[in-house]
């Protein structure tokens, strides 16, 4: 099904489609959350937040999902869970005191962050395979010595030059993007 | 902006500057709008691609009002109400762990685990280790390519929905697709999930022998396939190779080696 149809179904709170998503997609999200220090309740909350976030974003400014809806929904859930883990505020998930899932301010912020993530990922995918590999290591704080050994460069100087060139290319792609004007004001 | 500026900004983001150097750069950033603009761009790139970090947007951002209004729209409120109702609906599927029969099965499983734990000296058996270490999310997505050719999207869906047999048949029908590390990983994992260890290992060997950028991932998944097929000794050899050559998932390989019986 066309991803936009899913977004429209969410805007219209279409029970049939929502049930399908819960049946097919929630188990994958649960598996991911449980593998990453979360529980069943966390997974359900994240899934609900993801659906609300997508709807918020679509209402704010209709957007296009270029992958399958299911894959995109999973990415949104993963990002939300990482965001949750990285937030300083500890979550309360016991049965008697649950944090509310619907928080308009937080929904707005997470939707904006997902939009930014999309832009950088899209620009990143335009890079060559070699650039992607070297930048992925660089941004994950792998040392230059390790980058040299993993990618077979002759020296750290060569690796540094490669990182510099690839970042320059990425910057060029980002600056060319229409969405960048809004981003730079973040 | 000079190359030296860029190096300093990178070092700041990577936490490699001393407090004094960081402060000095911070002062320069505040005084130089162009440098600050480049710093912010670097920071956004750094954060967007480092999956362990997340740079938060804030309420002062330009678009916030628009998104905040959307979050309070009738559509979002209605959807939330619907999802909340669904949560409390009596027809909702009872989670597995809350089902009565599951409690009995779980009790038996716990006893079995305790017994096997004692017999194995506290170490998990290969099947448990496989379940613990396999992570389908380690496999890069195919969907970016689906923009150009929807077959990748279809294959990814079949794989992610666990329709491995269907995925393999479809892949066979499309055997002219260009070499792709993710596809080979998906293929190997599909065979693995269908308990066809020889085919899984053969596929991972094909990836390892290729010149694709993700070829080293093949070692990790080959080791897991060997564990699933209970060939622990061969798995250990592959894991040691990963650790010694600092290949993909070297840290996990080290950990897994110490967990193996």
Description:
The complex is a heterodimer of chains A (186) and B (261). Chain A is mostly helical and 186 residues long. Chain A folds into two domains: 124 residues, no CATH class; 61 residues, no CATH class. Helices cover 72% and strands 2% of the residues of chain A. Chain A is built from ten helices and two strands. Chain A has a two-stranded antiparallel ribbon with strand order 1-2. In chain A, strand 1 and strand 2 form a beta hairpin. The model of chain A has no long low-confidence stretch (mean pLDDT 85). Chain B folds into three domains: 47 residues, no CATH class; 27 residues; 129 residues, Alpha Horseshoe (Serine Threonine Protein Phosphatase 5, Tetratricopeptide repeat). By secondary structure, chain B is an all-alpha fold. Chain B has 14 helices and no strands. The N and C termini of chain B lie far apart (56 Å). The chains are: A mainly alpha (186), B mainly alpha (261).
List the helices and strands and how they pair.
The complex is a heterodimer of chains A (186) and B (261).
Chain A: H1 3-11, H2 15-24, H3 26-35, H4 40-60, H5 69-86, E1 93-94, E2 97-98, H6 104-125, H7 129-139, H8 144-151, H9 156-176, H10 180-183
Helix pairs in contact in A: 1-4, 3-4, 3-5, 4-5, 4-6, 7-9, 8-9
Chain B: H1 3-13, H2 19-31, H3 33-49, H4 64-71, H5 74-88, H6 100-119, H7 126-133, H8 151-160, H9 164-173, H10 181-193, H11 197-209, H12 217-228, H13 232-244, H14 250-259
Helix pairs in contact in B: 1-3, 2-3, 7-12, 8-9, 9-10, 10-11, 10-12, 11-12, 12-13, 13-14
């Amino acid at each position: 099904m066309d991803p936009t149809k899913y977004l429209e179904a969410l805007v219209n709170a279409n029970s049939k489609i929502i049930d399908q998503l819960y049946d097919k997609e929630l188990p994958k999200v649960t598996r991911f959350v449980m593998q990453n220090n979360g529980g069943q309740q966390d997974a359900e909350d994240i899934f609900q937040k993801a659906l609300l976030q997508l709807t918020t974003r679509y209402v704010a400014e209709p957007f296009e999902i270029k992958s399958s809806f299911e894959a995109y929904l999973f990415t949104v859930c993963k990002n939300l869970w990482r965001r949750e883990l990285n937030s300083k505020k500890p979550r309360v998930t016991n049965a008697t005191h649950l944090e509310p899932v619907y928080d308009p301010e937080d929904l707005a912020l997470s939707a904006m962050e997902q939009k930014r993530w999309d832009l950088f990922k899209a620009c990143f995918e335009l890079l060559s395979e070699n650039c992607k590999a070297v930048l992925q290591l660089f941004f994950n704080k792998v040392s230059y010595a390790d980058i040299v050994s993993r990618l077979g460069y002759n020296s750290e100087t060569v690796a540094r030059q490669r990182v510099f060139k690839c970042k320059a290319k990425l910057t060029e792609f980002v600056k060319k993007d229409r969405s960048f004007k809004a981003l730079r004001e973040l | 902006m000079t190359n030296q500026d860029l190096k300093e900004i990178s070092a700041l983001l990577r936490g490699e500057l001393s407090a004094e150097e960081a402060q000095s750069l911070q002062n320069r950033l505040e005084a130089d709008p162009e440098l600050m603009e480049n710093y912010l761009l670097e920071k956004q790139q750094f954060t967007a691609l480092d999956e362990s970090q997340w740079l938060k947007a804030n309420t002062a951002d330009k678009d916030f009002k628009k998104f905040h209004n959307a979050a309070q729209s009738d559509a979002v409120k209605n959807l939330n109400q619907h999802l909340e109702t669904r949560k409390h609906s009596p027809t909702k599927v009872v989670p597995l762990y809350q089902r009565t029969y599951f409690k009995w099965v779980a009790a038996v499983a716990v006893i079995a685990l305790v017994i096997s734990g004692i017999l194995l000296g506290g170490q998990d058996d290969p099947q448990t280790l496989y379940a613990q270490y396999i992570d389908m999310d380690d496999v890069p997505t195919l969907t970016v390519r689906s923009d150009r050719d929807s077959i990748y999207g279809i294959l990814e869906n079949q794989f992610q929905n666990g329709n491995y047999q269907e995925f393999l048949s479809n892949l066979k029908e499309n055997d002219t697709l260009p070499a792709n590390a993710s596809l080979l990983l998906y293929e190997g994992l599909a065979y693995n999930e269908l308990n066809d260890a020889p085919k899984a290992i053969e596929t991972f060997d094909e990836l390892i022998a290729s010149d694709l950028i993700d070829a080293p991932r093949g070692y990790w998944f080959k080791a897991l396939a060997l564990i699933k097929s209970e060939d622990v000794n061969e798995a250990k050899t592959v894991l040691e190779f990963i650790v010694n050559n600092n290949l993909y998932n070297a840290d996990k390989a080290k950990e897994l080696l110490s967990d193996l019986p």
